[in-house]
Amino acid sequence: MYRYKRITSLIVAVVTVFLLSVPGTVTVSYAEDDIELTAKAAILVEMETGQVLYEKNADMRWSPASTTKIMTALVALENADINTKMKASATAINSIPLDYGIAGIKVGEELTLNDLLNFVLIISANEAANVIAENISPTGRIEDFVDMMNREAERLGLKNTHFTNSYGLDEDNHYSSARDLSIMAREAMKYPAFREIVAKKVVPLPDTNLRKSSEWENWHIESTNKLLNSTSQYYDRVTGIKTGYTDKAGRCLVFSAINSEGLELVGVILGTDSYDTLFKESQALLEYGYKNYKFQTLASDGKYYGRYEVADAVDNTPVDIQIQGEVTHLLPVSSEKLQASITVNETLNTPFSAPIEKGQVLGTKTWYYNGEEIGTVQLIAMNDVEKTMSAKIRDKIIEIVNNKKLRIITIILLVIIIVFIILRVILRGISRRRKYRSRYYRY
């Protein structure tokens, strides 16, 4: 019998492994799991709110390499029209170190900001970043554009970011962090032009005043962000954003993706040892987010909440309560994690007393995720509740008794009445005595 059970178990195990290896045969449901990254720093956030889903050394200062160009593009889009013509100077081109990638822009060549951003963000052309810097700087000096980058970093509240150049050259005072890069990426993705460019897999080569599009050297036209080519059952497509590499920084990537439900996540990986590791861990981090978090509705507008007794109600009519408002938040899929992280504070103005008007706010309910408020709804009456006549009379008496002015007036009236009665009694007594005396003296 024991031998039979062992053979049966072995057959089941073999069949299970086989089924799992056949695509589409079995759907595997993933519970929340941890993720281990070799990257020196990382973060994963929700695009719209910046809600953090994962972080590792997120505030550690790190050489950002070419992810710097996210800020270059952001400042450019804030200060110039996308079709602005810009001219390349010798300084912008020749100041790039020999081992740093370029697009091959010529001195005196004129390109639009859109053309330059394509070069900057898709193939990480360093001289294109300098051309943008010179043309947007109010003085024409790259250093003054870098000052604009630092002012923008300050405006965004970036605590661990400082720039000394426009394209990512390793310098002592040029640094950022995973968290700061996620913030500037979210800000840049608000611009449709930026969003469109960082999703491209190939750079469009433009016509200029010095050449036709076909005359560019096209040895390097594909995006450096190979994550754009990735596929996953957890997200629909990768939407960006920017790679970076120097010997000091290692392999870096700021990336984003969106799923079929419209949930867009932004991630940052800094300091991996190879591009294979970089893209593998970036995809793993995205899948971690999509597997373990989703938007969940905790309260729906108009949903029935409950029925409650009402004191002094005509015919003992109860009040029905419904929810006004909605609370939806990005939350853990795991029921255990959700239960541990969500707390609720409910306030109902009980016991209820008539009268109650339809639509009257009778309480509130607030949800907290990891101690932070994520939404509040009002609890409102669905029906009118009238007060009985006896209760109205009782309340009027109580109102009079509790009204200081009315009490004083009432006391004065009572005193006047008592005085009047006393005077009446006295006057009657005097009247009787007069009558008595008049009768006595008559005889």
TrEMBL record:
- Pfam families cross-referenced by the UniProt entry: PBP5_C, Peptidase_S11
| InterPro entries, A to Z | Beta-lactam/transpept-like, Peniciliin-bd_prot_C_sf, Peptidase_S11, Peptidase_S11_C, Peptidase_S11_C_sf, Peptidase_S11_N
Q: Which UniProt keywords apply?
A: Carboxypeptidase, Cell shape, Cell wall biogenesis/degradation, Hydrolase, Membrane, Peptidoglycan synthesis, Protease, Signal, Transmembrane, Transmembrane helix
The UniProt record gives the binding positions of substrate as 242
Q: Which GO MF terms does the UniProt record name? A: serine-type D-Ala-D-Ala carboxypeptidase activity
Q: What is its EC number?
A: 3.4.16.4
Domain spans labelled Peptidase S11 D-Ala-D-Ala carboxypeptidase A C-terminal:
293-387
Does the UniProt entry include the keyword Hydrolase?
A: yes
- Active-site residues from the entry: 66, 69, 124
- Describe which pathway this protein belongs to, using the record's wording: Cell wall biogenesis; peptidoglycan biosynthesis
Gene3D superfamilies annotated for this entry?
Answer: D-Ala-D-Ala carboxypeptidase, C-terminal domain (2.60.410.10), DD-peptidase/beta-lactamase superfamily (3.40.710.10)
Q: Does the keyword tRNA processing apply?
A: no
Transmembrane stretches, start-end:
406-427
Instruction: Tell me what reaction this enzyme catalyses.
Output: Preferential cleavage: (Ac)2-L-Lys-D-Ala-|-D-Ala. Also transpeptidation of peptidyl-alanyl moieties that are N-acyl substituents of D-alanine
Q: Which GO terms describe its biological process?
A: cell wall organization; peptidoglycan biosynthetic process; proteolysis; regulation of cell shape
Q: Which family does it belong to?
A: Belongs to the peptidase S11 family.
Xref: PANTHER family? D-ALANYL-D-ALANINE CARBOXYPEPTIDASE, TRAFFICKING PROTEIN PARTICLE COMPLEX SUBUNIT 12
What does it do? Removes C-terminal D-alanyl residues from sugar-peptide cell wall precursors.
Q: What is this protein's name?
A: serine-type D-Ala-D-Ala carboxypeptidase
